[in-house]
Amino acid sequence: MSTLSLTVLGAGTPYPRPDNACSGYLLRTEQSAVWVDAGPGSLANLQRHVSPDQLSAIWISHLHADHFADLASAYYALAFSELRPRHRIPVYAPIGWGGRLEAFLTNSQVAAMSAVFEEHELHDGHQVEIADLRLTSRAVHHGIPAFGLRAEHNGRVLAYSGDTGPCAALDELASGADVLLCEADADEETEVHCTPEDAGEAARKAGVKQLLITHVGPAMTPEFAAGRAAKVFGGRTVAVAENEIHELR
Ligand SMILES: [Zn+2]
């Protein structure tokens, strides 16, 4: 049976630790492999599951380093190693991402960037079909241009919050989803991150089947945050860890 799967490449923040990379996920179907968020450490874990030159696309929620910095590492992998992608890899990311990455590179490297990456900028409501996977991006509240994601395949739906405070776009992305993968960075209420209770409330309002808690800030353990979220959601809630694979059947 055709399935959509989520592989966790990293769920940590604000910096990568041994066995705890920053935000990174792999969405897979029979015909697609999309790297979602490129937090530091996630590229190394990605290679446990797929070679970077085999990616269908890369999608980045926002340009904070704990979601974006390994795109520079991916450039090095694709431009300077034995990996030779047969096609440019489409990158979908917030406005200005290309310039941000170019600023990190030297002049001679900038020319090569367009040889490995196909540049796309996200906007609210952006939609793209990547083989048998549909990705819809919505602008969310994080103090900088930032997006949440709704991934749909064969009747299965995974919603990903990116980083965001509670907002209507998050509720809409998650509406009726099989899985809501939601950050719970904040121990106390803030406009730019979800608390565990915010994540639980978003899952409850959206009527999702399962809540996966990720990107838990240093004030809490992931398990503690998942427990707080579960009390509000009332449904199945777990904290994710890297290299787990969650199948949406
Ligand atoms: Zn952020």
UniProtKB/TrEMBL annotation:
Name by which UniProt lists this protein: Ribonuclease BN, tRNA processing enzyme
Highest taxon of the lineage: Bacteria
Gene3D superfamilies: Ribonuclease Z/Hydroxyacylglutathione hydrolase-like
InterPro entries: Metallo-B-lactamas, RibonucZ/Hydroxyglut_hydro
Metallo-beta-lactamase domain ranges (all copies): 21-220
Listed GO MF terms: 3'-tRNA processing endoribonuclease activity
